[in-house]
Design a protein that fits this description.
By secondary structure, this protein is mainly alpha-helical. It contains 3 helices and no strands. 74% of the residues lie in helices and 0% in strands.
């Protein structure tokens, strides 16, 4: 698995899983805010800088869930045998 073509397939594979993880994380954050668990949505609404809190939470959830999805996808890849050319 060498060459630019195989690298672009790997990048697409990782990017696809990262985007799925980010979407999952943001969905979870939206559900947390909608359900107002632990009074989080109330704190955001009453704060002068609530938008900043949501932006920081969204960034944190994106990094956490995006990297977790990429890591899981990589660890679940089957191991290649010598001489076998397998696409992700």
């Amino acid at each position: 698995m060498t060459g630019p073509k195989s690298h672009s397939k790997l990048v697409r594979f990782l990017l696809r899983h990262a985007l799925l993880g980010i979407a999952f994380g943001w969905t979870l954050l939206a559900l947390l805010l909608y359900a107002d668990l632990f009074g989080l949505a109330g704190l955001v609404r009453t704060s002068d800088h609530g938008w900043l809190a949501v932006a920081l939470l969204a960034f944190g959830f994106a990094v956490t869930f995006g990297s977790a999805a990429m890591g899981t996808a990589v660890f679940l890849l089957e191991r290649e045998e010598e001489g076998e050319d397998r696409d992700p």
